[in-house]
Amino acid sequence: MDKKRRNFLKIAGISTLAGLGATTGLGRLVGGAQSAVAATEEAATAEHGNAIEQNAGDTPCVNRYGMLIDVRKFREDLSLGERVVRACHLEHNVPNIPVKKDEIKWIWMTHYENAFPEQPHLYLDQTNVEFQLPILCNHCDNPPCVRVCPTKATFRDANGVVIMDFHRCIGCRFCMAACPYGSRSFNWSDPRPFLDDATMNKDFPTRTRGVVEKCNFCTERTRLGLQPACVEACGDTKAIVFGNLNDPDSEIRQMLKQHHTVQRNPSLGTFPSVFYIV
Ligand code: SF4
Ligand code: SF4
Ligand code: SF4
User: Which residues are within 8 A (CB) of 141 and not within 5 positions of it... i.e. 6 or more apart?
Assistant: First the structure.
């Protein structure tokens, strides 16, 4: 395992447990969660020939859902970013909280240097300096957030999707400290007053104060045979392609074969299931 990855896993474990464990009075859980971090490290130590093929999570997954985001399409049509964010947040009753530090985000637009901090350099091309691209939970194949969750409120389903049971979340925020991508948001206050009754999706649960939330790869839609809301919002542009990475015949696998793609912070050993054509 390279030094950077080892350091990340240690920092994720130790800072999460020391910082949050102390403040939330969950010290008794620290021992168990530390073992979980050690297990993460062990899993990441295993040899992985191909970042797509490997599956280092502790739940054997039948499928491994993934996403391919074609950033070029977001540059061609500047309205696309707003459309995908809006589609996701309406679908999942994500509150529109105006105070930046309390924001709840499932998918959002950001600059290249924030999305790919391992790659920027002084002479980055103007296109990547100017434009933004969408980021969301990576549904990592080796997810540190799952390892540290003391209540199993965060877990992987049979499709390799990292999802949450909001009812089991005790708000300890171990998962937020463990996630190196900032993909999770915490409800510091009751989010319901920030939802618009007129646009609320009555079929999706709202959350409460003290609960963490994030992108769920639209499991409520995919189990009905629908595409994720953000994919649907892209129309037929193929700006986002969603599918099963374990199926060599799937569209996403075909596209991955044809294009050079990158993942976010690959050196951390989390094996993101979200890929980008930049
Ligand atoms: S991106 Fe963060 S929240 Fe999502 S699976 Fe990976 S570690 Fe967990
Ligand atoms: S999902 Fe909830 S219970 Fe699990 S680590 Fe995150 S905050 Fe804690
Ligand atoms: S997959 Fe679904 S939950 Fe995730 S960002 Fe897209 S619309 Fe939101």
Answer: 54, 55, 56, 57, 64, 160, 270, 271, 272, 273
- Mean pLDDT on 115-131: 77
47 alpha carbon to ligand 3 midpoint, in Å? 31
CA distances from 211 to 137, 145, 174 (A): 17, 14, 12
pLDDT digits (tens, 9 = 90+) for 175-190: 999 999 999 999 999 9
Q: What angle do CA 41, 161, 28 make, to 5 degrees?
A: 50
- What ligand 2 atom has the least distance to the C-alpha of 145? 5
Q: Is 139 in the pocket of ligand 1 (CB under 6 A)?
A: yes
Query: Residue 117 — pLDDT band, cuts 50, 70, 90?
Result: confident
Which residues does ligand 2 sit against, CB inside 6 Å?
148-149, 151, 153-154, 164, 169-175, 212
Q: Are 108 and 183 in contact (CB under 8 A)?
A: no
Measure CA 35 to chain center: 23
Indicate the pTM of the whole model: 0.83
| C-alpha triplet 138, 4, 19: angle, nearest 5° | 75
Q: Express each pLDDT in 20-76 by its tens digit.
A: 443 343 433 434 444 444 444 444 433 333 444 444 445 567 899 999 999 999 999
**What spacing in Å lies between the alpha carbon of 55 and ligand 1's midpoint?**
15
Provide the phi-psi class of 93: left if phi over 0, else alpha when psi is between -120 and 50, else beta: left
- What is the reported pLDDT for 59? 54
Pick the CATH number of 3-277 from 3.30.70.20, 2.60.40.10, 2.40.50.140, 2.60.120.820: 3.30.70.20
Mean pLDDT computed over 160-177: 98
Ligand located closest to 167 CA = 2
Tokens representing 181? 């991508």
